[in-house]
Amino acid sequence: MELFWLAISTIVIGVFGCVAWFWGSNMVLDAIYPPRGENAGDNIRRANQVRPWLFLGPALLFLGLYLVYPVIDSLWRSLHNADGSRFVGGSNYSWLLGDGKFRESMRNNMLWLLVVPALSTFFGLIAAQLTDRIKWGNIGKSLIFMPMAISFVGAGVIWKFIYEYRAPDETQIGLLNWIVTKLGGDPQIWLTLLPWNNFFLMIVLVWIQTGFAMVILSAALRGIPEETIEAAILDGASPMQVFMKIKVPQIMGTIAVVWTTITIVVLKVFDIVFVMTNGQWGTQVLANLMYDWMFRGSPDYGRGSAIAIVLMILVTPIMVWNIRNARKEVR
Amino acid sequence: MEGMAGQKSSLTWAVNIAAFLLVLAWTIPTLGLFVSSFRDRDQIASTGWWQSFSGSEQTGFVRTGTDDDATQVDGMYVIEGNVLEGEQSLIAWGTGARQPAEFQPGETTQIEDGWDLTVNEDGSYRLSSAEPFEMRRGERIFTTTEVPPKFTTANYRRVLTAEGLGRAFMNTMTVTIPATVIPILIAAFAAYALAWMEFPGRAILTAAVVGLLVVPLQVSLIPLLRLHNDLGIGKGYLGIWLAHTGFGLPLAVYLLRNYMVGLPREVIESARVDGATEFQIFRRIILPLSFPALASFAIFQFLWVWNDLLVATVFLGNTREQLVMTGVLRELMGSKGGEWEILATSAFISIAVPLIVFFAMQKYLVRGLLAGSVKGG
């Protein structure tokens, strides 16, 4: 109950604080440059030069302190030793290059990067195309979209249950092993099965992200001009040809956006690996490796930061691409 | 023409079936968790959840009574009893381990010199002999029984009280609500400035927000942890609220700006001509008109904060009283990997709230996704 009041009072204080800032600072501004009297015109102009910064102030403070400053600080820390007391140049990075776990993480991240966006987009596209053509499409969409609302941890539990292993002479309670034994195979401990276990972890993320891809691609598919499709059908194109040669090329831009958005998610993937294997059995990824270095017995902030910077470098091309697209759109 | 129509309907069939299979594949994992959360430990351990609707078959044996239990009826020595217990029903029975299902209920067989054994459908058996019985242990009757499907809510009671998930639920709420409300306000003002105010640097700031959208959270962890410690915030709710506000802002500003830019220019211009201050325009015109975008972001942020594990682990601490639900789940997975009934139930409770929000507000979620992504292409 105490907790409840704490939360409520935070909301009230937070909301009230924000409103007080925006309202109060505007009042002060109007008092300094009153928009009336002999200098009204000048005052309004001056006030309008200041006002945007009042509106932007809190957001800029947060963005600067919680996103921009950390990038710079991480860069600085990555060039220093474990507790930041001594400058060590690039030695954290050269250590990374020689570290087996880091190389394993890089390899796995690249695998994730290849598999997850491709499969999610592929299934998303199929789901979009199928559900757009049937009566119960909206229900179907909802159900495929649903995993989006489930936490990575929750999804981890759900899929760990599917991958559950029992000895061959017992009844299999994991769905996958049950199917495998019904088909005459031997039950496997999927999550320790090199190198396929990485793939079993990726499926969890594909399961979550497909709905996202479907929603975006479905909207794009519906935005395709009808004439192009009708013309193709009149020319005798089969449904498959219409889809592959008319529809897909027209939504390439959207596919690229979906692909990059999922790529970002993949690069940062942490929870799924953390709760399902914790990076054992050759499944380590960068984000989890970094967590390891941050929270192990004696944290090494230098190495942890170096891994964080590697992640930052990996997302930078997408960042640049997004900014260019956004600017194109503004013009 | 007929051929084409036939082709078309078979295509419709194929599409329906393919869609159904896809939906099934995406639903089954969650369904499995849901069903399992209503089964007790023995059921989960002995059969798959997909078998729980049909009732499960069990095999075993019971021993008949011995000499002492025998009664004399019409000159015959008789031992009677019942092989079933609870809600079991008998499918087959037998007298040897090699053929445990040799006989149907109601059949009679002769075991050893002149002993007749009958087992009826209701489980009652009758072992009779003309001579007195001489046995130290009862005869074994092997049974194949069926237990009707059974579901229980006991897991939920146990998890919410004994396993501390109730507390974690409150913690998650406490983290989530302020972390959803506060960024909306801050972002709305900033988005308005970026969308409708003229000032130098506007384009660069807008681009910066787009860039910050993809900054990996991981980069912020170490610096912010140090910053919070230096500022004396340490680990706690204040820290996590601030962190989530910071991490959620780029998306909030981006979504809201994109939406506000699309609002009709005339309305805002005419309000300005009428002498409304920027603050009034924002409060009276922009804010009400932007409701759909505000709702979209609120859902995103709510789902994201509710489902987050990393930020909570780093900024809130890991004692039993501080854990949020994802944290509890993670602990359960580590320490009680075998107790599926606890794990399944806890997981389902933790995903229930996001699922409710998701199904209730799906419209806004989809709208937000489209505003956030399609424009980039």
Automatic annotation (TrEMBL), chain A:
Supply the InterPro entries for this chain.
MetI-like, MetI-like_sf, UgpAE/MalFG_permease
Q: Which domain of life is it from?
A: Bacteria
Q: Where are the transmembrane segments?
A: 6-32, 53-72, 110-131, 143-162, 199-221, 254-281, 301-323
Q: Where in this chain does the record put each ABC transmembrane type-1 domain?
A: 106-322
Give the bilayer topology.
Answer: Multi-pass membrane protein
Q: Which Pfam families does this UniProt record tie to the protein?
A: BPD_transp_1
Question: PROSITE patterns per the record?
Answer: ABC_TM1
Q: Which UniProt keywords apply?
A: Cell membrane, Membrane, Transmembrane, Transmembrane helix, Transport
Where does the record say this protein resides?
Cell membrane
- Cite the Gene3D superfamilies for this sequence: MetI-like
Q: What is this protein called?
A: Sugar ABC transporter permease
In its UniProt entry, the species of origin is given as Paracoccus maritimus
From TrEMBL, chain B:
- Primary residence: membrane
Instruction: Identify its membrane topology class.
Output: Multi-pass membrane protein
TM ranges are: 12-35, 175-196, 203-225, 237-256, 285-306, 342-361
Pfam families named among the record's database cross-references:
BPD_transp_1
Which domain of life does this protein belong to?
Bacteria
Q: Where in the cell is it found?
A: Cell membrane
Q: Which UniProt keywords apply?
A: Cell membrane, Membrane, Transmembrane, Transmembrane helix, Transport
InterPro entries tied to this protein: MetI-like (IPR000515), MetI-like_sf (IPR035906)
Domain annotation ABC transmembrane type-1: ranges? 169-361
Query: Known SUPFAM superfamilies for this protein?
Result: MetI-like (SSF161098)
Q: What family does the Swiss-Prot or TrEMBL record give for this protein? A: Belongs to the binding-protein-dependent transport system permease family.
What is the protein's given name? Carbohydrate ABC transporter permease
Q: Which organism is it from?
A: Paracoccus maritimus
